[in-house]
Amino acid sequence: MTRPARLSTAQARRVAVAAQGFAEAAPRGAITRTHLRRLISRIQVLQLDSVSVAVRAHYAPVFSRLGPYDRDVLDRAAWSHSARSPRLLVEYWAHEAALMAVEDWPLLRWRMREYRHGRWGKEIVAKNPQLRDDVVAAVTELGPSTAGQIEAYLESEPRGRKGPWWDRSETKWVAEALFASGVLTTATRVGFARHYDLSERVLPPEVLARDVDDDEALRELTLRAAGALGVGTEADIRDYFRLAAGQVKPALAKLVAEGELEPVEVAGWAAPAYLRAGQLVPRVDRGTALLCPFDPLIFFRPRVERLWNFHYRIEIYTPAPKRQFGYYVWPFLLDGELVGRVDLKAERTRPAGGSALHVVGAFTEDGQDRSRVAAALAKELTTMASWLGLDEVTVGERGDLAAPLTHALG
Predict the structure, then answer these.
(1) pTM, whole model, 2 decimals?
(2) Which of 155, 182, 189, 362 could serve as 399's disulfide partner, Cβ 3.0–4.6 Å?
(3) pLDDT tens column, 120-130
(4) How many CB atoms lie within 10 A of CB 167?
(5) Could you tell me the sign of the dihedral formed by the alpha carbons of 178, 83, 32, 389, in that order?
(6) Who contacts 233 (Cβ-Cβ below 8 Å, separation ≥6)?
């Protein structure tokens, strides 16, 4: 039996960063749909999240890889359709709630069947079968609608009356279950509010008609996850599309047998890993970017710790006095290494006037040169502030990097 190839941790890091598109130069000129399509084919998903303290999560990975761009390009790709500019992206539970390529929607039909009564609140949906039919009928009549608009149309319950979970109405739970089962999808978003419509009115007929065998879909998702990661263990690969061990194990075995994936050993990793066949290992460290908490490079925190010895947890739900680094912390990637982290907040209206990208706290990882990190970070923050239409970058007092960063910003 041939011994698997072996990678050092540094080599695995380079493969991971390159696979996510950080090792390439940003496009010159305006970012187009073509650039966006290529990026999605590489990283597969853009996670959605309601937090907007700096910028919403789905916009950030595109900026981190392609540089400043017009966010309308992403909005039009995700939430509008025309003959000249067909919809490029669609929402579904691809990782968590995420944007993915429209043509990939059939790969998750098995999940839609699993979620036929919704992902959560199944008992609420189960006790309201008539409401399910009523919601579908209302959307059919109304067109793209929020849960509140559907509820008002049905007059199913007084406005403001909510269910026991997350303060959602029963109508909202049923609409979300229909979304999870694939009956409804997001036609558009306004102020981040989802407007539901029938999937058949949003997705192209050829996408709706495409039938993918479950085993083939799982094989394809496993291969894509491995490609997006560059190198990863079974657990890493499972997490990318939130697959189960029983789904991924046979898919990995098949992909290895077919020569699509190669087993590899990574120094310091207890579990075996997998590499796309023919994957080149970069010789030098590249990639500099701010990473939002939901960036695909850092989705799976145990892998982040293995690759960079970087312990990272989101602290949004941690009480303020107990937070170690801050509310919405962005790791900073510099030449392929995670060297620091910044707690960021967009202050669009300030008491003294103007606007700012405010660094609430800035921290350097152990062993890093603070001056070097501060100089590179100042450049990235200035670019980010300009991209967000903010006047300046300001820095608070928290963290060992705060003073050097203030100095670097001039």
Answers:
(1) 0.93
(2) 362
(3) 878 888 888 89
(4) 8
(5) negative
(6) 269, 271, 272, 273, 274, 303
